[in-house]
Amino acid sequence: MRDPYRNLAEALGARGHGPVNLTALWASADDERKFSREAVEALLHAGLLNAMEVDNALARAVMGRSGAAADTVAHLINTVVLKDKLLSYTVGNFTHTRAHAQAQAGTRVGT
Predict the structure, then answer these.
(1) Phi and psi at residue 89, to the nearest 5°
(2) What confidence category does residue 63 fall into, taking pLDDT thresholds of 50, 70 and 90?
(3) In a domain, 111, yes or no
(4) Rounded to an integer, what distance in angstroms lies between the CA atom of residue 64 and that of residue 101?
(5) What is the domain count for the chain?
(6) What is the pLDDT of residue 13?
(7) Has residue 57 got a pLDDT over 70?
(8) Alpha carbon of 97 to those of 35, 51, 69, 85: distances in Å?
């Protein structure tokens, strides 16, 4: 059975909702549930969240002592960076590896 969060993320992507719109909505939400590990992972996989903005928002939340944000960070590092290699880290920022590779090839994420 497919992950329901990934299904939702892919459906949103198919309707043309871009990373900037959803990232801003996600970052401004005043609800700890936005740190759902599976939801954030699925949205990143679908290319619907801007990885650098998510990184900044998670860093602010962790500095504010959010346990849910710290748990999400640990999960994302293990899955999205180390296991799936969707993102790579260079000093100072995350790079969406799929988007970067497709930009080099002249295609768009999700196509």
Answers:
(1) -110, 130
(2) very high
(3) no
(4) 34
(5) 1
(6) 59
(7) yes
(8) 22, 10, 23, 7
68 sits in which H/E element: helix 67-76
The DSSP secondary-structure symbol of 90 reads: E
26 found inside a domain: yes
Q: In the prediction, which pLDDT does 92 show?
A: 55
Q: Which residue range(s) make up the domain with 83?
A: 4-105
Q: Find the Cα–Cα–Cα–Cα dihedral 75, 77, 83, 89, rounded to 10°.
A: 160
Specify the higher pLDDT residue, 18 or 32.
Answer: 32
Domain membership of residue 21 (yes or no) is: yes
Average pLDDT over residues 37-42: 90
**Count of helices and strands (H, E) across the chain:** 6, 2
Q: What is the pTM of this model?
A: 0.63
Given a contact cutoff of 8 angstroms between Cβ atoms, the answer to whether 94 and 57 are in contact is no
Give the whole-angstrom CA distance, residue 74 versus residue 2: 23
Q: Inform me whether the pLDDT recorded for 71 exceeds 90.
A: yes
- Position 110 in a domain: no
How far is residue 20's CA from residue 84's CA, in Å, rounded to a whole number? 23
